[in-house]
Amino acid sequence: TASTKLQRYEELMDEIRAIGIENPAAEPLTEDEKLLRELMAEHIASRYPEDPETGEPRIDNPSDVFKVKTLMGDVPPKPGPTLEDAMRVYVAEKLDGTEFEFRKKLRRVERIVANVHAALDPVPPLDQWTRDTAKKVRDHYLSLGLKPASVRRELNTLKGLITCFITEKEAGFENPFRNLDLPKNVEAVSEARYPLPDEVKDQITALIIGKAKKDVQLLWRLLDGTGARIAEITGLRVQDVIVDGELPHIKIRAHSE
User: Fold this and answer.
1) In 3D, which of 65, 81, 77 has the Cα closest to residue 4?
2) Residues 6 or more apart whose Cβ sits within 8 Å of residue 112
3) Which of 20, 24, 183, 236 shows its CA 20 to 30 Å from the CA of 113?
4) What is the dihedral of CA 28, 29, 30, 33, to 10 degrees?
5) Which residues does 117 contact at the CB level (< 8 Å), separation at least 6?
6) What is the spatial distance between Cα 66 and Cα 80, in angstroms, rounded to a whole number?
7) What is the spatial distance between Cα 61 and Cα 48, in angstroms, rounded to a whole number?
8) Cβ contact 83:126 at 8 Å
9) Global pTM?
């Protein structure tokens, strides 16, 4: 995979440090430091032919152009981190398992990154993301027709990916997905509970009455008659079932044991 701009920037800075320049961006410099840097820059430039008109070396290798500029005090600005930079860090730090498990997790991360590119064209550097940027990604997922739970799961992974980069690289920006919720109307739909269609309920009832054990039949009759959840019915105590009086009913309440 090709290096990102930020990754290549850091690689070139490491190469400059390797030739004896501890802090390539340091300033001001002493006269001895300036002389040393000039000699190093001239050594790099000496490998290239001179322009007959200007007498300056024709340095056509971008890496050497970068090194000469940096050595001469014209340090190129550091590129902003991209989503791909964050993905590299996340994959290295968080993905594990067998080869099959690792590749499965990697494909999921790659799919999420692809969806971000579909939502944002172009994708800005991470340190330029705003709340609106995060919402565009969220709304793109919602437009795909995914269930709210699936959208939330994808966004949580994306948030974790960015958080991992911020932590590992000690980046000075906040995660735009922090405390980002789904729109209230979407949340309401996701929490809604719809009854089983009558024809489905009748088929389930026939199956349970015809083949299930007696206790399961009783549980189903309570579920069918009250609309309660399975956990609420299976957690009932004898004292919670009220059969005396004009209106038999059950009490749904928590028990300590």
Assistant:
1) 81
2) 154, 157, 158, 161
3) 183
4) 180
5) 83, 123
6) 17
7) 10
8) yes
9) 0.68
**What's the Cα-to-Cα distance from 63 to each of 1, 18, 112, rounded to whole Å?**
18, 15, 32
Percent of the chain with pLDDT over 90: 60
Report d(CA 40, CA 15) in Å as an integer. 13
Q: Whats the size of the chain, residue-wise?
A: 257
Stated as kind and residue range, the H or E segment containing 217 is helix 214-226
Q: What is the rounded distance in angstroms from the CA atom of residue 201 to the CA atom of residue 45?
A: 82
Residue 166 has pLDDT above 70, yes or no: yes
Give the lowest-confidence range in 85-94, 160-169, 173-182, 213-222: 213-222
The residues, ordered by sequence, that sit 6+ positions from 125 with a Cβ below 8 Å of its Cβ are 79, 80, 81, 82
Residue bearing tokens 């349970």: 208
Let me know if 161 is exposed, middle or buried by CB neighbors in 10 A (0-12, 13-18, 19+). Answer: buried
Q: Which two tokens stand for residue 146?
A: 């995914």
Query: What's the rounded Cα separation, in Å, for the pair 216 and 120?
Result: 52
As a whole number, mean pLDDT of residues 78-85 equals: 96
